[in-house]
Design brief:
With 138 residues, the protein is mostly helical. It has helices at residues 3-30, 36-51, 75-90, 105-118, 124-137, and strands spanning 55-57, 66-68.
Amino acid sequence: MSIKKLQASVTTALQHAKLYAEAVALATKAAEGMPRDEVRTAIMPTIGAFYGVALVEGAGKAEGTQVFDKDAKAYEAARKALQRLLKDIMGEESSGNKEEIEVPAEILAAAAKLAKLCAQYEDSRKLASTAVAQAFAK
C-alpha cells in the first residue's frame, strides 16, 4: 500500500470516527431518561436490519424478549454492534450488587507502590493486573 493510500485511509477513518461520535451524542440525547432495556429494544431492529440479522423470540432467560437469530451469518457482528452502541449511548452498565470493600492500609500502600512502578511502562494497568495475577498463581 502506498503512503498516499495509507494517509487517505486514515483520513477516512478519522472522518467516520467523528461522525460516529456526533451520532452517538445525538442518540444519547434522544435516549435521555429512557431505561437501558428500552433503548436496547429500540435500537435492535435497526442494527439487525443493517447486518441482515433477524430478530426472533428469546428462549430461557430471554423469554418474552426479542433477540438476534444466532444462526444468522452476521450474528456476532450485530451482537457486538449492539453491545458497543448501547455502552456508548447509555454508558457502562452498573451492577447494583457490587459491595464496597475496605482495603487495609498496608495493601493500599503496596498497590500505590505497584501503580507507581508500573506507570513507567506502556499498558501500566494491564501490567499491574498481570503482576498481581501472577503473584496469586505462585
